[in-house]
Design goal:
The protein has helices at about 10-20, 40-45, 65-70, 80, 120-125, 145-150, 165-175, 175-190, 195-210, 210-225, 235-240, 245-250, 260, 270, 290-295, 305, 320-355; strands spanning about 50, 60, 355-360, 365. With about 375 residues, it is mainly alpha-helical. The strands form 2 sheets. Strands 1-2 form a two-stranded antiparallel ribbon. It binds heme C (7 copies).
Length: about 375
């Protein structure tokens, strides 16, 4: 779902529709496992709940209990996130849910403090993408947490954990439900649950291929006399043309995705939230870190190898050699095909005019002697 090219506003709707949406049979659905202590579903369980915004977007306010109970946030009470709702019936919403607020109901068992995503938020806000939840102007083009994170991502349907493991845990913990919950929580993180190269490409290019957005930022940066990467206007487009990009598009998962180069691999899950431009010395794409970045996969890469352009441009002004090389190859390629097809056509026409029939027998398609005695075919 992250692949859709949607503007931030409609992204909310996307997120919402993941958690919410159409509950076809309210009464046949099995009872939700999470507890609606706050009674929000008294109203929000009805499929028709929603409204059309001033921009004409249909927003659903309908929460599907059976979907919600499978999201990563299933144990978070509604109002830990929707903390602005203080009374019922509630008032209209301004800021909505911010992803760095503290949960009232959940403590971090390791630290004993109220749980929050503050750590990730701190990295994110310093990154090139950092913005406030409600952003205006150019900042509104940047991704907020919910632009990249839609609920189902981390929730492949895992089914029940293996019973021999649960059996072993319950001899002490007694409750299977407790064990199953914790088992899923940790086992998912032990397994590699990461976006594939293709998904990463689709996520980043949902913005970095948006011509209007790119032009807007190039123009603004010029006006504000602010630096932007040389490759900023062509990053996604050129990646597609690169060797890595072509392999990714063909479905080869082990080649470099945007995040293999733009995020540090040590501490990956934090670093993906800290993307910095290549002019920042802390970026793995900074000139002083490039060799190390390539070496992760290209073990013998040196300075010369790292100088190869991961964002090759075939525009005349950027790379004259590549521009002419491609042009010549294109001309030669087309010419060869045209000549091949042309020759077969001429040959076919010639043989037909000679009166040679076209019939399949004994492994040959051309029969009969030439009328004009040219003896093309035996
Ligand atoms: C008495 C019925 C009722 C209950 C109970 C209720 N809601 Fe609502 N909720 C509504 C209605 C009606 C709307 C649509 C309001 C509108 O269009 O301005 C709504 C809208 C919302 C919105 C979207 C508001 C916006 O403008 O974007 C959120 C978020 C929300 N409710 C969360 C909750 C939470 C969390 C709870 C539980 C604490 C809850 N609701 C309990 C009736 C209810
Ligand atoms: C982990 C945090 C989280 C939890 C838990 C959560 N929500 Fe939400 N909810 C969001 C986010 C994020 C949005 C997207 C809108 C926004 O950014 O404010 C949203 C959107 C909504 C909307 C639509 C609001 C709109 O403006 O379009 C409704 C209604 C809603 N939630 C109800 C609920 C109910 C009812 C529950 C409990 C069953 C619940 N939510 C639990 C984070 C949460
Ligand atoms: C020999 C008894 C025993 C077995 C078997 C056992 N546990 Fe525990 N577990 C404990 C005790 C005692 C604690 C609390 C003390 C501690 O932190 O060491 C605990 C703590 C935990 C906690 C931390 C809970 C919190 O809120 O702090 C989790 C999670 C947990 N166990 C999961 C499991 C899982 C999953 C299994 C099976 C793979 C398992 N345990 C097997 C005895 C056991
Ligand atoms: C540009 C896109 C992007 C933005 C913006 C973003 N994230 Fe992430 N996030 C990712 C990627 C990519 C991963 C790594 C996992 C994967 O490959 O999907 C990740 C991983 C995570 C994880 C680890 C999940 C797990 O189960 O191990 C958490 C938690 C998280 N992000 C929270 C946040 C929060 C909170 C924000 C906002 C402050 C945020 N993210 C903003 C892309 C993003
Ligand atoms: C929601 C849209 C959006 C998504 C998704 C997104 N970006 Fe960005 N990105 C932007 C915007 C907007 C800028 C800021 C340009 C500026 O500073 O004016 C930016 C800036 C950058 C920059 C720094 C450019 C510079 O020269 O300063 C890099 C590098 C970057 N993004 C990489 C990525 C990668 C890698 C991903 C995928 C994980 C990604 N982006 C996903 C919108 C997005
Ligand atoms: C093989 C490593 C590699 C891959 C894969 C890669 N990049 Fe880059 N990227 C770089 C390097 C190195 C630079 C700096 C190049 C320069 O300025 O000459 C860069 C520059 C950029 C810039 C310009 C801003 C800056 O930091 O200079 C953006 C935006 C960007 N990349 C986004 C992406 C996106 C989006 C993807 C995936 C579609 C991607 N990159 C894939 C290595 C990579
Ligand atoms: C995540 C792993 C990964 C990273 C990081 C990575 N590459 Fe690659 N790259 C690959 C794979 C896989 C191939 C496929 C061909 C192969 O096996 O050599 C490839 C192929 C290439 C090729 C095509 C020709 C060749 O040598 O096979 C070039 C050029 C290249 N990479 C340059 C770079 C540069 C420059 C960097 C650092 C900025 C880099 N790569 C970083 C995985 C990676």
């Amino acid at each position: 779902m992250i692949t859709r090219k949607t503007q931030p506003r409609s992204q909310y709707v996307l997120v919402v529709s993941m958690m919410l949406g159409l509950l076809l049979a309210v009464f046949v659905t099995p009872l939700a496992a999470f507890e609606d202590d706050e009674g929000c579903l008294i109203c929000h369980k009805y499929p028709m709940m929603g409204r059309v915004t001033d921009e004409g977007v249909l927003r659903s306010y309908y929460v599907m209990p059976h979907i919600f109970e499978r999201t990563v946030h299933r144990n978070v009470p509604c109002r830990d996130c929707h903390s602005y709702i203080k009374e019922l019936p509630h008032k209209p919403v301004k800021e909505g849910v911010t992803c760095n607020s503290e949960c009232h109901s959940i403590k971090n068992p390791a630290t004993g403090k109220q749980f929050s995503h503050q750590l990730i938020y701190d990295s994110y806000i310093e990154s090139t993408h950092g913005r406030k939840k409600i952003a205006e102007g150019p900042d509104a083009d940047k991704p907020y947490c919910i632009n990249c994170h839609t609920n189902p991502l981390y929730n492949p349907d895992e089914g029940k954990p293996p019973s021999q493991i649960v059996d072993r845990c319950v001899i002490c913990h007694e409750k299977r439900e407790f064990v199953e919950r914790w088992y899923n929580h940790t086992s998912r993180r032990i397994r590699e649950v990461k976006r594939s190269s293709k998904e990463v490409f689709e996520l980043c290019s949902s913005c970095h291929e948006n011509k209007e957005m790119l032009d807007r930022h190039v123009r603004l940066a010029k006006e504000e006399d602010r630096e932007l990467g040389k490759k900023f206007p062509i990053a996604a487009e050129s990646y597609k043309e690169s060797f890595h990009g072509k392999l990714t598009r063909l479905g080869f998962g082990k080649t470099a995705s945007c995040l293999d180069c733009h995020a540090r691999q040590k501490d990956y899950f934090r670093s993906v939230h800290e993307i910095r431009p290549s002019r920042d010395p802390e970026s793995p794409t900074h000139i002083s870190n490039k060799v190390e970045t390539c070496q992760r996969c290209h073990t013998f890469a040196d300075e010369n190898y790292a100088a190869l352009d991961p964002h090759p441009s075939s525009k005349q002004e950027d790379n004259l050699f590549k521009y002419y090389a491609e042009m010549i190859y294109n001309i030669v390629g087309v010419a060869v095909i045209v000549m091949l097809v042309g020759m077969s056509l001429l040959e076919t026409i010639g043989r037909r005019r000679d009166g040679i029939a076209w019939r399949l027998s004994h492994g040959s398609t051309w029969r009969r002697k030439s009328r004009r005695g040219r003896g093309r075919v035996e």
